[in-house]
Design a protein that fits this description.
Aminopeptidase; 16 helices; 15 strands; about 20% strand; elongated; binds zinc ion; 2 domains; zymogen; about 475 residues; metalloprotease; disordered N terminus; alpha/beta; Glucose Oxidase, domain 1
Length: about 475
């Protein structure tokens, strides 16, 4: 009798909110899980995986297989188009005179190849301001132009490195330069992929990041006299091509049409193995899904686990996802994105939505001992939340310590050994509890109208960044930001 009663009670509990779910999910995430096995398979076993490469394709197949092995039955591959292909090929350079030595460099994504090997004089244009180019005058015509850089120490420095792209390209082209060498912002020979365009369009000038120390030596030599270089950059370029997002879901028990999406990008640059950017969060999302599955937790709403590709090419995967699911957007309760490695999670970017603060804090309240409540109201343009934000969907992005992510950003050193394993386990616990709560809560957040989004962009000054990145006109023309 007692047994029967208990069974009945259990059945009732299973059909209703499982209020202990956040603690159970967190406890499981903090214990022994396949998180590191997955990350090693992705980073060491597959490696760097630029969208459009065979490695990217392998990572898509691996993600499907891993979701299925975790027990998820609804796993789909959603194809989409990216306008232009760019993949790295040969990148070689050497000094020919007054002294011969090889130069370490890495082609800058979305820039042109040289026509065969180029031999030309080097012209040092300092930090490459308009006045610097004016000073170089006719010497820059047909030359390989060296642009100097300050050492990168913060996200602001990294941001400044991107913001100078357009001015540099237009000055160099106006001056008739044959190629651009950009001094690495990281010391000790470290190279990284520095995209020179942010919308995937090709820049009609060969460009590469050159080792910081080699750039210093070249600059000193150029001060004393003529320096002649040989440069050979052969990138693979092409027109429109197909890539895929991998999407899995746990269908909600009461409101399966309402969706909470947690996402990270599966693609990476190729010099390293894309551990901090962003394999560690791919592995985390797989483990969050595995946790729900293992514990048999089915929340009120559907949880979608999205692994996007084409992020490094201009956030194409999430942009196309939003386009494809346009008719469903009213049903998106919230999206949660992680894209800054494994640094300590201190809170979330609310992306201009003050109404997200209370639900996030309520979601994390059951996790005594772990806080992530230092939220920032700032709105982000630069990862996969962006097209959701532009379409009025409530969206969160993890705020994390810049270490270990930043020094290895897009670099040769972005490898498995960099990951902060302790913090990533905690982030997995927090993310699990957060998506459960967003998917379970009786209240849901509201989608904004186009007018509200426009006001948000102006209030958060994101409009200024969008103008600098050439995205504002797309938004005002209705090509980005989808509303019924
Ligand atoms: Zn990233």
């Amino acid at each position: 009798m007692r047994c029967v009663k208990l069974l009945f009670l259990c059945a009732t509990l299973a059909a209703a909110a499982d209020n202990d779910a956040p603690r159970r999910l967190a406890a499981r995430a903090l214990g022994e899980t396949p998180l590191w096995t997955d990350l090693r398979a992705l980073c060491d076993g597959i490696g760097g995986r630029p969208t459009g490469s065979p490695a990217a394709q392998r990572s898509v197949e691996w993600a499907v297989k891993t979701f299925r092995a975790a027990g998820l039955t609804s796993v789909t591959v959603e194809p989409f188009k990216i306008p232009q292909l760019w993949l790295p090929g040969t990148a070689e350079a050497s000094a020919l005179s007054p002294v011969q030595f090889p130069i370490r460099l890495a082609a800058a994504p979305f820039t042109a190849s040289t026509h065969g090997a180029l031999e030309a004089n080097l012209v040092d244009v300092g930090e490459g301001s308009e006045q610097d180019f004016a000073r170089a005058g006719a010497r820059a015509r047909g030359a390989i132009v060296l642009v100097r850089s300050k050492e990168m120490k913060s996200f602001d420095d990294l941001f400044a490195e991107y913001l100078r792209n357009d001015a540099l390209i237009s000055s160099a082209r106006k001056a008739g330069a044959a190629a651009l060498l950009l001094q690495s912002t990281r010391p000790r020979g470290l190279l990284y992929r520095h995209p020179m365009g942010l919308d995937g369009a090709l820049v009609p000038l060969p460009a590469a990041v050159v080792s910081r120390e080699h750039a210093e030596r070249l600059s000193r030599l150029a001060e004393a006299g003529d320096v002649r270089l040989r440069l050979n950059l052969q990138n693979q370029t092409g027109g429109e091509y197909e890539s895929q997002n991998v999407v899995a879901e746990i269908r909600g028990r009461e409101k399966p049409e309402e969706i909470v999406l947690i996402g990270a990008h599966l693609d990476s640059w190729d010099l390293g193995t894309g551990a901090e950017d962003n394999g560690v969060n791919v592995a985390m999302i797989l483990d969050v899904a595995r946790g729900f599955q293992e514990l048999g937790i089915v929340p009120r709403r559907t949880i979608r686990f999205a692994l996007f590709t084409g992020e490094e090419q201009g956030m194409w995967g999430s942009r196309r996802y939003v386009e494809r699911h346009r008719a469903e957007l009213d049903n998106f309760v919230a999206t949660v994105t992680f894209d800054t490695g494994s640094g300590r999670l201190s809170g979330f970017y609310l992306n201009g939505r003050e109404d997200l603060r209370a639900p996030v804090n309520a979601a994390l309240a059951p996790l005594s001992g772990f806080t992530a409540s230092d939220h920032l109201i700032d709105a982000l343009d630069g990862t996969d939340n962006f097209d959701f934000l532009l379409s009025g969907v409530p969206n969160l992005v993890g705020v994390q310590d810049p270490i270990p992510y930043l020094p290895d950003y897009h670099a040769e050193s972005d490898t498995f050994d960099r990951v902060n394993q302790r913090e990533q386990k905690i982030t997995t616990a927090i993310a699990s509890a957060l998506v459960w709560s967003l998917a379970e809560s009786p209240q849901r957040l509201r989608r904004q109208s186009r007018q509200e989004v426009e006001k948000l962009l102006i209030d958060t000054k994101l409009d200024q960044q969008m103008k600098a990145f050439g995205q504002w006109s797309d938004f005002t023309a209705g090509q980005r930001g989808l509303f019924q």
